[in-house]
Predict the 3D structure of the following.
Amino acid sequence: MDSKSFVVILAVAVDWLLGDPPNTFHPVAWFGKFAQALERRAPRDDPRAELLYGAGMTAIGIVLAALPAFAVRAIARQRDESRTANWSGVLLAAFALKITFAWRGLIRAGESVQRDLETCTIDVARDDLRTLVSRDTHELDASQLSAAAIESLAENASDSFIAPLLYYHWLGLPGAFAYRAVNTLDAMIGYHGRYEFLGKVAARVDDALNFVPARTTAFLLVIAARLTHNDAHRAFETMHRDHVRTASPNAGYPMSAMAGALDVRLEKVGHYVLNENSRAPQPHDIRRAARIVSVALGFAITIGFLIGARDQIPNRKS
């Protein structure tokens, strides 16, 4: 097993055994507070100044995130005098990588919304859903809450897992940390309205970084639909047809694939409708979506392991 695959497996084990640390001790939460402090000092009512300031925020965020990752990577690569692996460094790298993704937390957040809806505590479901989505949940009914939870499970399979792991495999810990910084900035200021110019650079960089992960996730969800006895054919067809219906150039891929896999209609009122001719989703569909996501993420880890194992095979050509 190559070292990166081993670190990924350890990081996933840490995620499922321990979950996310409280925000008080979570580096992503620290980064969010730092970004909030920068945002409060941003210029107002001057689009050019806001655009330049936002570009600076994005650049500073990437550097700030990457520097500690370089330090962790250097420690993890150290060898002792007997040339055996530095296991403390490997564990440190695994804990650091875990900070960049959330699998258990994503699934459990979806399960919480489902449980609330099934016990008829819709107001609690609206509150719990806010851990998954940024939209206003107060006016959503049970079907709309189910749809939003399913959409978030699909989209966050990419943003909160596949993307950081891809960047870890490509660029190591600094890549995963830099991706998480950009993704966090996009979630905070990368949307239209008040942050139209301030968040434009962060949003565009996030779009570019998620181009491959979103499409990879969508195809993994199609495969997972097949493995979980859902509708893989409809998942692919819906993805191909409906991915353009969302404002995001990336989010539509995994969300439309999930809509087809479950054969449900996913709608954000006033914004988009995916798989529009199918039935409205119900709370039990959240469980189905969570299972598809988990199988897709497990399959992604397996692929990474196999690629790493192949790269470890010596070249036997004469």
Observations:
- The mean pLDDT is 91.
- Residues 82 and 88 are 15 Å apart (CA to CA).
- The chain has one domain: 3-312.
